[in-house]
Amino acid sequence: MIAVGFDEAGRGPLAGPVCAAAVILPKSFPLEILNDSKKLSEKKRLAAEAVIKEKAVWGLAFVDHKTIDEMNILRASLYAMKLAFEDLRKKNANLDLSGLKGIADGNFVPPDLPIECEAVVKADAKFPEVMAASILAKTARDRLMVELDKKYPGYGYAKHKGYPTAAHKAACHKLGPSPIQRLSFSY
């Protein structure tokens, strides 16, 4: 069985998009570089990201803050996983879906996938494909939040990446919500 791992980054922040990745690893992949993205240093995440992008089959997708507010963060996260799989397929048009199974981190699976998918709690600590997806999603989202910090200075996005830190909440109370604030989240 060949597995495609799904994971997201950015469910908990008060601002910015959620990002998801879908990854299929080759048999020759150096699994020792993988772990749950939250357990790797930034330096190790970035090094692993480069190897994943070079050697694996992968897709990535973002769902913006407005869509998160419209559909809720859980549904937006699952939708981002679906879009990440579509990106993976677009980049690999000849991908054979027979025998391919999805493993999604969490309690739910992405909607409307053309493959069987299983939800596994803490899959990002158990399955290499999901670990790789977690690394791609986190590095992509973190990179975007650093860019958005330049566009919306004063909120500290480069530092806290939109998570509900005391500094982020204080900036929101002082400056008002930023243009990328999730307005359905309380701050």
Description:
This protein is α/β, with parallel strands linked by helices and 187 residues long. 42% of the residues lie in helices and 18% in strands. The chain is built from six helices and five strands. The chain has helices at residues 42-55, 65-71, 73-91, 128-151, 157-160, 166-175; strands at residues 2-9, 18-24, 57-63, 100-105, 116-120. It has a five-stranded mixed β-sheet with strand order 3-2-1-4-5, with helices on both faces. β1 (2-9) and β2 form a beta hairpin. α1 (42-55) crosses α4. The longest helix has 24 residues, at 128-151.
Mean pLDDT: 95
Give the biggest sheet: 5 strands, mixed
Q: Which strand order do you get reading across the main beta sheet? A: 3-2-1-4-5
The succession of helices and strands, N to C, reads EEHEHHEEHHH
- Total beta strand runs: 5
Number of helices, counting only DSSP H or I runs of 4 residues or more = 6
Q: Beta-strand percentage?
A: 15-25%
Q: Give the N-to-C terminal Cα separation.
A: 44 Å
Q: Helix- and strand-based class?
A: alpha/beta
Query: What would the principal axes of the Cα set say about the shape?
Result: globular
Helix content estimate: 40-55%
Radius of gyration over all CA atoms, rounded: 16 Å
Query: Any low-confidence stretches, pLDDT <50, length ≥5?
Result: none
